[in-house]
Each structure stands twice: as structure tokens, then as C-alpha cells.
Amino acid sequence: MTRVTKAVEERRQEIVDTARILFVQKGYTSTAISDIASEMRVAQGLVYHYFDSKLEILYAVLDELIDEQIASVRTKVRGFKGSARDCLEMLLTQEHQPELLESLLPSIVTDRGIMEYAGKKMSVLSLPQFEDLIIKGNEDGSWNCPYPKETAIVILQGIGGLIDYEMLEESDLSEKQTIVGSIISRLLGIL
């Protein structure tokens, strides 16, 4: 076999792309480093040269999927024509998870550490956008919130704390959306 040398970032991305496909197809726990290496047609040691563990690869995959999800929501919010209140309602009632992230969740949902990482990352990346939405709502009369940034932090952190990921399959998602919507409405002063 001819040895192919690739740039560091290109090789790392190839590993992440391959792992992403395998994690979605087979599940995270059912995918081994050897599966990733085999799919790439490289030695297993090459994968370990770029990543210390399968978990580190999973975090890289999650980072990409979360970035894609945030970008998708950002696009929807920027293109939304209407009041901040209507935009908030759209955000609370529409499904925003990319199909790949949704496919990966069943294999990682029971790992609290991974789920907390994903929730925290989504929270941090969503903060500026959510703060802007609260400011827009103050301007268009949707609500009167004197502390937009702090309220955004409380809402985003609270949503993460409210959702019990182990109970996700057993609980009605629309019920959770209603509860979250009610809490957010009260925090923003909407009755």
C-alpha cells in the first residue's frame, strides 16, 4: 500500500468525518477505533496519533454537529419576519436538531458527562443570539426585560438543567416544550 501523507488538519478532519458516519450508523458504543481506521484504510495507530481516545473523537464530532445546529437556528432567526415573541414561539415549537445529531443521541444519551458537555456548549454558543432576541423583544414591545444578558443566561442554563436526558424517551417532548415556554414567558414578563 502506498503511503499517503496529508496535512494535519486534513487528516484530523478525515478521522472526524469517518467517525461521524460510523457513530451515526453503528452508535458510539458499538464503534471502535479499529472500525474508524479500517473504514479509512489506515493503521489504527494513525488515529491515535491525532486523537488520544474515541471519546476525544466523539467530542470533535459533537462540536461539529452543535456548530451546525446553532448555525441553522441562527439562520432561521435572522430570516424570521415578525415580532421577537413570535420568533421565540417558533424556536420553542419547532424541531431544530439536525438529523445526524438526532441519530447519534440514542447511543450517548445515558452518558451524563457527554450530554452536559453538549448542553453547555449549545448554551454558550446560543447566548449572544438569545440575548439579541431579548433586546429585540424589548424594542418591539414583546416584553420588558431589564436584564437581557442575565435573563438569557438563566433561561439557557435553566433549560439545560430542566431536561433530564435519561427520561427523554419516556417523556412527552411537547409537554416539555410547554413547560419551558411557560417558564421563559414568566421570566420575560409575558403572561
Structure notes:
The chain is an all-alpha fold and 191 residues long. 73% of the residues lie in helices and 0% in strands. The chain has 2 domains: 1-52, Orthogonal Bundle (Arc Repressor Mutant, subunit A), CATH 1.10.10.60; 61-188, Tetracycline Repressor, domain 2 (Orthogonal Bundle). Helix 1 (8-26) packs across helix 2 and helix 7 (112-140) packs antiparallel against helix 8 (148-162). The protein is elongated and about 65 Å long.
The radius of gyration is: 20 Å
Task: Please write the CATH class name of the largest domain.
Answer: Mainly Alpha
Mean pLDDT: 86
For the termini, the CA-CA separation is: 68 Å
Helix content: over 70%
Helix/strand/pairing category: mainly alpha
What's the CATH H-level superfamily name of the largest domain? Tetracycline Repressor, domain 2
Q: What's the shape?
A: elongated
- Corresponding CATH architecture of the largest domain: Orthogonal Bundle
* Proportion of strand residues: under 5%
Number of domains: 2
What is the number of helices? 9
The topology string of helices and strands comes to: HHHHHHHHH
**Which quaternary structure do these chains form?**
single chain
Q: Count the strands? A: 0
Write the CATH fold name of the largest domain.
Tetracycline Repressor, domain 2
How does the major sheet shape up? none
As residue ranges, the low-confidence spans are 165-169
